[in-house]
Design a protein that fits this description.
The chain is mainly α and 343 residues long. It contains 16 helices and two strands.
């Protein structure tokens, strides 16, 4: 037998009916695909990059470029030195941590700091859970028409300005408001709500709930829509009631989103708002309504002491960063991803 016949015989299971041998299959490519060059990727994705470019420019100009202005927290900054802001930066005297020393020795700063933390903690307990509860209630509504109507009603106040929101509460709860007039007609002493510093923390929380609780449910409704409905059907078939399904399926499904938003809320703990407190500061007094944002306005911008305000803002940012890192670490300990992970 010739060598060719031996080869064909050895591979007779792969021979064709006419006796010829089919060509061997091409070897598989087991290596990684060679990465494209930057120019090739730009040519491929230029349409997407063009769509993203305006948002990137806005983010760069209004969020990242102003970070460079934090240098005035270490200067005795005078904006009138030179013909432009850059010359003012260069010409202002460098004083190191002098602004921070003045800041930490100011009792008004610590009053604003304590008020900010107290309002944040109060709203974290009594405001943060409400969007979760509202989202669960809306998700369980069987009528889509009723669900859409309720969503429209609770979302609408989010688009009102704080001037309109505070004016609405003054018209309802103020000294000449509807509630006070009704109580006077009934022979009762009207409640001092809008000008009472002792209950101001409750007032601003109620205002924030009325304005933003509906808008906050959007994220949780989106998270609820991702939960597998077969889990509810299986639990119901096993005899689990509504509360057990809520505890063992709904809340665990929402837990990653809850942890993420909680971390972000803690990072923004020292930014409880500006317009809401500025509008009501004179009515209840500085001791109750002064927060860090209004403190920066009254003691820095209004007086022209910009370095002092930059020091307060930099301190607030540093505390927020520490809170985010600590909360994210706790989330990792609990088995959640948080806002970032090392892996």
């Amino acid at each position: 037998m010739t060598a060719r016949n031996t080869t064909v015989a050895a591979g007779s299971d792969r021979t064709r009916p006419d006796g010829s041998t089919p060509p061997a299959p091409a070897p598989r490519r087991t290596g990684r695909r060679r990465p494209q060059s930057l120019r090739a990727r730009l040519r491929r994705d230029w349409q997407l990059l063009a769509m993203v470019a305006p948002g990137f420019v806005i983010l760069l100009v209004f969020s990242y470029v102003p970070i460079l202005g934090n240098v005035i927290a270490f200067q005795d900054y005078n904006p009138y030195l030179g013909d432009n802001p850059f010359q003012a930066f260069v010409s202002s005297n460098w004083i190191g941590f002098g602004q921070f020393q003045l800041l930490f020795e100011d009792p008004a700063f610590w009053d604003a700091f304590r008020n900010t933390l107290a309002i944040t903690a109060f709203q974290l307990v009594f405001f943060f859970p409400l969007p979760i509860a509202l989202a669960i209630m809306l998700h369980n509504l069987l009528s889509s028409r009723l669900r859409g109507f309720v969503q429209t009603i609770v979302y609408l106040p989010h688009f009102f300005s704080w001037v309109l929101v505070v004016s609405f509460f003054v018209a309802m709860l103020g000294g000449a408001g509807l509630l006070a007039q009704t109580m006077r007609e009934a022979g009762l002493q009207p409640w001092n709500i809008m000008t009472n510093p002792d209950t101001f923390i409750i007032l601003v929380t109620v205002e924030a709930v009325w304005k933003d609780v509906g808008w906050g449910t959007i994220v949780f409704l989106a998270a609820l829509s991702t939960i597998d409905q077969s889990l509810y059907e299986a639990a119901a078939a096993d005899g689990a009631g509504r509360w057990r399904r809520l505890w063992h399926i709904t809340l665990p499904g929402l837990r990653p989103v809850i942890v993420l938003l909680l971390i972000l809320r803690l990072g923004d703990a020292l930014s409880v708002g500006f317009e809401q407190f500025l509008l009501q500061r004179d009515a209840v007094g500085r001791q109750a309504a002064e927060v860090l944002d209004t403190f920066v306005y009254h003691f820095s911008i209004a007086t022209g002491n910009y370095g002092y305000g930059a020091a307060a803002g930099l301190f607030k940012a540093a505390v927020g960063l520490c809170l985010i890192l600590a909360a994210n670490r706790v989330a990792h300990k609990l088995g959640e991803r948080g806002i970032y992970s090392k892996s």
